[in-house]
What we know:
Layout (H helix, E strand, L loop, with lengths): L12 E6 L2 E6 L2 E2 L13 H12 L11 H13 L3 H9 L9 E2 L4 H22 L6 E2 L8 H12 L3 H12 L4 H8 L5 H8 L1 H10 L3 H25 L2
Parallel strand pairs: 4-5
Antiparallel strand pairs: 1-2, 2-3
Amino acid sequence: xxxxxxxxxxxxxxxxxxxxxxxxxxxxxxxxxxxxxxxxxxxxxxxxxxxxxxxxxxxxxxxxxxxxxxxxxxxxxxxxxxxxxxxxxxxxxxxxxxxxxxxxxxxxxxxxxxxxxxxxxxxxxxxxxxxxxxxxxxxxxxxxxxxxxxxxxxxxxxxxxxxxxxxxxxxxxxxxxxxxxxxxxxxxxxxxxxxxxxxxxxxxxxxxxxxxxxxxxxxxxxxxxxxxxxxxxxxxx
Length: 237
């Protein structure tokens, strides 16, 4: 049997101001999540981005081409009901932050890491009162409890929609500091991607490229850039 696929059934796509934010209407009918929850978004910019994705659909609906829609659905259906648990998970990255774990050698690599990552750790210390310890190798290093508490407070203070973006900014880089730095515009997503790949790029310089690994990296970078756009839309006026 041929699998049934949803097709475009509406003519007009519009953004409508409602109580608590904005919704997208398809021929006047408000868009809901797959779980039938009202899809109310905090900013017009976010709703307009979702509306553009729906308006771009022709014939068969292609969810894989609707990243903003997937993110807002995730915010409403998954993050809102378990905001604290998601925030705790992301805050946990501060305990094993990528920027704190340096190579044991060679010196050229350790110097590259220090030059790239030390300024961001300094930024975290100044911005969040969160100094973090640095170690060489993979043996875990205990971080100051107060620093983790302060970083955790920053994550928990992020609303459900922005937390969806922060989730990708943190998990795709392996660094809470990098994720927060993008959210505060200390660096942009493209820079964060490069900063998260210092070890990988070093290995490429030594041993050459791998097409499959390059493709996977480009996919992660695209996700990271999209997360940055989603974050910005969550706060656009």
